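Appendix B. Raw example, untouched.
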Amino acid sequence: MTNPINPTDDTARQLAQDLLHTARYGAIAVTHPDTQTPYAARVAMLWHDGTLLTLISTLSLHTKALAANPACAALIGEPGDKGDPLTHPRMTLICTAREGDKSAHKTAWLAAIPKAQLYYDFSDFKMYELVVSEAHLNGGFGKAFNLVADDLAV
């Protein structure tokens, strides 16, 4: 069987970086803290200064899951207006979550996601940094790549 993963090149790195810089939402996958089963949730995300950020409420199950086990994955990439959604680029990032400095990211977050002004300062919302260890890029059919954290650096 032929390996479907292509050698990582500058075109793949650029596509991965483009996905990161345009992402405003994605899915986060965690381990359910009670059942140890997979759990996914749609969350706001922002790539800022080389870090994937998410602002999430401590009332949510995915925040409780991250407190119990910081290992997670994030899926970014939106389908375009036309065509088969599976032909559009998307990327899965393997991450470890850690609580970030919410005040340090406020200006960048609100510039990118202005509607968050409504809840950004709520005390139950915390900023998490998703530290990427590896990424799996699917640029469309026949365009699969494995990347490491250094491939995502600008």
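End of appendix B.
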